[in-house]
Specification:
about 180 residues, alpha/beta, six-stranded mixed β-sheet, five-stranded mixed β-sheet, 3 helices, about 30% strand, globular
Length: about 180
């Protein structure tokens, strides 16, 4: 199974188009970690801000998307997206462990219902992360449209127990072997 993972799209169509082109080549599922259409009041307007186009591109792949709600996603966004985005989290079984998938604005590191060696997949901070902390693996693909802390626009791929973060030119930013 090959998961492509994006977060914090914030309506940026050009960068999403680059990721979706790669996803269409060999991806099984697209995991979307929230903040899909709206840029939020604290962010600058992203380049190629076209939320209607972003909605259309994602709706074309609705059967291959698993998504969670971000702090910038609202009920009005669900009205134009043809896949569910209102869940605050999802639990995905993956090769003997669980992936707790969330945007990151509601849950801290005290996640009592997942066990050591499970993974927390989150967005929200717009910074790529792949590190083990307190027995849990924290994975963040970064943001494809509004990277922060001198990071670059990025997304991730999870395949064969390897979490790899790529920039939009498909250069490896970080990689973490899960097992």
């Amino acid at each position: 199974m090959k998961y492509y993972i994006v977060s914090d799209i914030h309506g940026s169509s050009a960068n999403l188009e680059k990721v979706l082109k790669r996803f269409d080549e060999d991806g099984d599922y697209l995991l979307v970690l929230g903040d899909i259409l709206y840029h939020g009041p604290r962010n600058d307007l992203p380049a190629n801000y076209e939320p209607k186009k972003v909605a259309a591109m994602l709706n074309e792949r609705k059967d291959k998307i698993i998504a969670v709600r971000g702090n910038c996603d609202g009920e009005v966004d669900q009205m134009v997206l043809e896949f569910p985005i209102t869940a605050d989290y999802q639990m995905l079984p993956f090769d003997g462990y669980k992936i707790f998938m969330t945007h990151g604005h509601l849950y801290d590191e005290n996640l009592k219902w997942i066990k050591e060696d499970d993974a927390v997949l989150f967005g929200h901070i717009h910074i790529p992360v792949a590190e083990k902390m307190n027995g849990l693996l924290y994975l963040n693909p970064g943001s494809i449209s509004l990277p922060k802390m001198e990071s670059v626009p990025s997304y991730a791929v999870l395949e064969n127990d390897e979490f790899t973060i790529y920039d939009l030119n498909k250069n490896i930013v970080n990689s973490y072997k899960i097992k």
